[in-house]
Amino acid sequence: MSSCKVLQTEVAASDLEHQLKANMKEQPQLSDDGVTMQCPSWLNQEYMEQCLRSHYNDNELEILKFQAMPCLGKGENYLGVMTRVKVEFLLPSKNVTKTRSYVVKSMQQDKIFNEVYGSDVFLCEMIIYEKVIPKLKALLSDISENEEIFARTIAVDRQRSCLIFDDLNERNYFMVDRLKGLNREIVELLLRKLAKIHAASAVLNERQSGCLESFQRGLFSRHNDKNYSIVTGMFDACKKFVAQSPGLQDISQKLEKLKDNYMELCLRVFDPIANHLNVLNHGDLWSTNIMVKYDPVSSKPLDVIIIDFQFVVWGSPAIDLWYNFNTSLEEDLHLNKQDELIQNYYYTLRDILKKLSFQGHIPTLHEFHLQLEEKAFYRLHSTCFIQPIHRCIDTGDADFATLIENTKRAMRFKESCYTKNPYCQRIIRHLLPKFERKGLLCLNQ
After folding, report:
1. Which of 306, 323, 344, 365 is the most buried (most CB within 10 A)?
2. Residue numbers of the domain that contains 367
3. 204: closest CA among 66, 389, 21, 3?
């Protein structure tokens, strides 16, 4: 199928805003006590039967066995409820019985989550899977780039704000240990696929007159103030840790002076620069949003699938690169190999842009590095304020409330992300002085 035919239906910028507002009226009901339900009450055999009947286009499909269980532990996912559903069902039209496993991603069912986000983040992800990913795949297919990048979608349910995917575990894809991070082999696989997504998105946006530029929220942006309190709380916890670290007292004082300007400096990272290369970023590309397939004999990584597209944002590829590199890599890669990783990512990005006949300016490798450096503040932010959350060891209080609030309990959790994590302590003590020498703690930058 040609990309021209696939791209006829535009993702209009105004549609996203309209759908976000309209969907606010369709939020699922809270449980009586406001506590997150690990397995949603509506996720039952009858519901899955209807979804599978639609997917297989067989109204006689019948589920014979049904089992639902939580997927993830604390500290692995703060925003969604992930439920694994195993079913055995009969397909009368083909006279066969199948056994399948699916992952159902649904909204948190607690008051704090709904007050902060409503259904915005899930509607955004549903639009990505329904409207955007098929077009990115079609563009790449036109140049014979057919490797699997995204999870297969079984159903998109806007009424309940949920997505149903094939269970990647059944195909031997597994989540990386977030405390160990990504090794060289995994990150190379990831960057090749990320570069293809970025390149295809730049071309899609070019051919459809800015159709992706309406994705402006991300984790932090001028269009999304939902996470500002996370930043302020982690800033205070980090500053306290730095002040108590030998040799970093002067830097602690600079952090204190930076506090009033900090959020503005962070937001500038998300401001697209017109003469730079801009792409659709994943926005939350850390280790638990990557599924890895390993060789059963050698345990060598063979493939990766990228999941969770709820914080996509249009802007510099630095958003994804700095965030991933400074939250999710093994220690040596984090400290010493980022330039090499950028170079490898760049070559794939450049090649795909050329194959897709991108009409804009493709930066040279040197120009690309300079563009990334203009967003280098995100290296500081990701290393010092995001990584400690992602790699927290004491997960007893790791939940959405402790992230978004700054109560005594919440601040105790945030401080523990530093005081109880030797790995993050080493990284911050090593890199924070380098960030200071680069001028990333200056008020005017």
Report:
1. 323
2. 132-152+171-437
3. 3
- Give the contacts of 104 (CB within 8 A, at least 6 positions apart): 40, 43, 68, 82, 83, 84, 85, 162, 163, 164, 165
| 281: nearest Cα among 166, 398, 199 | 199
Q: Which residues, at least 6 apart from 174, have a Cβ–Cβ distance to it below 8 Å?
A: 168, 291, 292, 293, 294
Q: Can you tell me which residue has the tokens 């994804």? A: 320
Whether 201 and 279 have beta carbons less than 8 Å apart is answered as: yes
**What is the tens place of the pLDDT at every residue in 354-370?**
999 999 999 999 999 99
DSSP 254-289: HHHHHHHHHHHHHHHHTS--TTS--EEE-S---GGG
d(CA 337, CA 183): 11
| 124 within domain boundaries | no
* Mean pLDDT lowest among 73-77, 103-107, 235-239, 305-309: 73-77
Same domain, residue pair 227 and 318: yes
Residues 38, 68: contact at Cβ < 8 Å?
no
Between residues 222 and 65, the one the model is more confident about = 65
Number of structural domains (the chain) is 2
Position 65 in a domain: yes
Distance of CA 348 to CAs 34, 195, 355, Å?
46, 6, 11
Question: Within this chain, do residues 98 and 137 fall inside the same structural domain, yes or no?
Answer: no
Are 270 and 393 found together in one domain? yes
- Do 307 and 374 reside in the same domain of the chain? yes
Residue 293 token pair: 């397939």
Same domain as 215, residue 104? no
Closest listed residue to residue 291, CA positions, set 193, 217, 360, 160: 193
CATH number of residue 325's parent domain: 3.90.1200
Residue 12 confidence (pLDDT): 42
- Decide if 74 is inside a domain: yes
Lowest mean pLDDT among 13-17, 61-65, 200-204, 423-427: 13-17
- Check if the beta carbon of residue 316 is closer than 8 Å to that of residue 277: yes
Q: Tell me the pLDDT of the chain averaged across its residues.
A: 88
Are residues 327 and 372 located together in one domain of the fold?
yes
Question: Which segment of 217-226, 268-277, 296-305, 348-357 scores lowest on mean pLDDT?
Answer: 217-226
Residues 92 and 141 in one domain: no
Q: Are residues 201 and 90 in the same domain?
A: no
Q: Is residue 369 part of a domain?
A: yes
